[in-house]
Give the backbone structure.
Amino acid sequence: MVSVTETWQVEPSGPLRGDIGVRGSKNAVTKHMVAAMLGDGPSTIRNAPEVGDVDITAAMLEAIGYQVGRSGADITIEPAATVEPRVPEAFTGLNRIPILMLGPLLHRAGEAFVPLVGGDPIGRRPVDFHVNALRALGAEVEAGPAGITARASRLYGARIELPYPSVGATETVLLTAVLAEGKTVLRNAATEPEVVELALFLQRMGAHVELSPDRRIVIEGVPRLRGASRWLAGDRLEAFSYLVAGLITRGEVRVHGCPQDRLVTAITTLARMGAQIDITDEWITASSPGGLRPAAVHTDTHPGFMTDWQQPLMVLFTQADGMSVLHETVFENRLVYVPALKQLGCEIETFAACLGGPACRFQDTNSVHSAVIRGVSKLRGADVTLPDVRAGFSAVLAAAVADRPSVLRGIHHIERGYHRPFEAFGSLGLTVRRGAGPVLSRTDGYPAAMTTAFVLGGGGLLGAHEVGMLRALAEAGVRPDLVVGTSVGAINGVLVAADPAGAAARLGRMWQGEELRLAFSEKLWGRAVRLARSGTHLHSLEPLRRVLAGALPGDSFADLDLPFQCVAAGIEAATARWFSSGPVVPAVLASCAVPGLLPPVEIDGAHYFDGGLVDSIPVGRALALGADTIYVLQVGRIESPLAVPAKPWEVGLVAFEIARRHRFHEEMSALPDDVRVHVLPTGGDRLPPGLSQFRYRDRAKVSLSIERAYTASASYLAALARS
């Protein structure tokens, strides 16, 4: 298994120089592993990378009966004596591979269940493309909240035209049609090198596949396939990333193992920016002795500029002399990583318009899919959490040319997609350390290892329960190294981070006294006037802003005693944003800006609503930051059973609660074995029925909620200490 470490400390080290050999891509090797399910004999995939996605896919195959062996860069898959048709739900959201298993499972078992897909948060996955293709081939397919179920006694060839040349949907058709009875003609197919590589592997297994130049693939079904062996070509994503690593640091990296024909568009783009490219049959290198020029680039399906190349390119643009434009046309939410790069000083503005290329399918939508990048930007070191694989690599590039060291969290994203990136960067001369180390600015006083976390969820007035839980934790001597909060949990949590020892008492006075009451004490007439004027909200943020400013030791996250993070729901980007640095009061206000009650909070030109909309109990965030002991301070929602709605207004409430709880339960079910999570009890204080749970001004039960939660949590912690 690949060793995953959550944190890197990156120290700028000057030009990066050296040689990097790239292995096959994670997107190729995992698909080949699925194809091996179809063979009657063993199959071997050579030049495979050591990445997390390979381990996940291997575990899936083993869970349904296949044997997976690894020797160096070779992976061998042995046929299953008996195939289990259900991929366990434990693999929900880990990567995009389960849906590709539907066709092979139908051929092997006549039925299949696969959990929901995952991967990087880059936009909607066109699962309907897969489902419609399978139905066209004769399968009965049902998509449910937990995953996709399919049945077929026999599959038949069909004529299929994809609405968009989706790589995954093309692979589903290939993997299903090769053993279907008759001919399948797939139009508007994806033609990426990884798709062609998969088709060639299937051909070695005995499939009859014809690739036409007009995005048409013809597959003649055969009765059986044999095992096969294939050497994977080098990863074009990884090759481009390391070429950029050399360019951005004014060094030179020589990349081996990736054929030139996989990088044609990328090479031309770099050359237009002023890079000097040298190419041989063995390697490719890029340098920029005369500096870099800006450019306008739009991503596209192959043979266009690959969408996965745009994150390293975005950082490279910050070091080009002038304004560059990037237009993403493949995924509508690919720019979610921009806030992380902006923390490192990248000057990037994003837009919902089509810039830098022809109008795309996201025109006239709210999708933020274009960016203008200013160069040359002076990048700065920062403490940054990485949202996905390519963005993680890009953050390392930015940190390599920053003015001081950086701390990068969520490094598992990089190690999930790149072959031994820690060793590769070290070999190029970058100073990078794993695990705990000096943190930036005021946070030098933070604990070296953030192993114990308090996670405080949302729930309005029900947040009073958290005060009782904090009192019980304090009396039990439990002190956090890290505090993570959302919604009202952000208010409670920031006070814990500000004063861990005195927070329970301070919050008790705040909740049972006048401070919080006055923040929402405006008379009915005043609320009606504000709603009429704003059209969106009943209350002003100013009273709550004054409460927080008066309770906190300073204006910044750096003034807190403990590491603290809170989440808010970005309106324009429709995604979660985690705040961990900069002004702390606006971040907390954004995290608790309940739609309808409070106005959205503007930060850095973007607008935010309550964090509970995107992560109501953020256990996964604490886990990603390195915690292995997590205390969940929840407000009673997960203890209260849901009932089938009986009244019109209950329909929306129940649907919202399902969405809130689903993420929590999924994160809990996927916890590593070495992580302990303690969900503190509220003491049986169940949610009030219907709309009464949203009476945010009714403070009659605040003291009772505090006491019940304290008594129940104290008893729970005492039992825990005895066990």
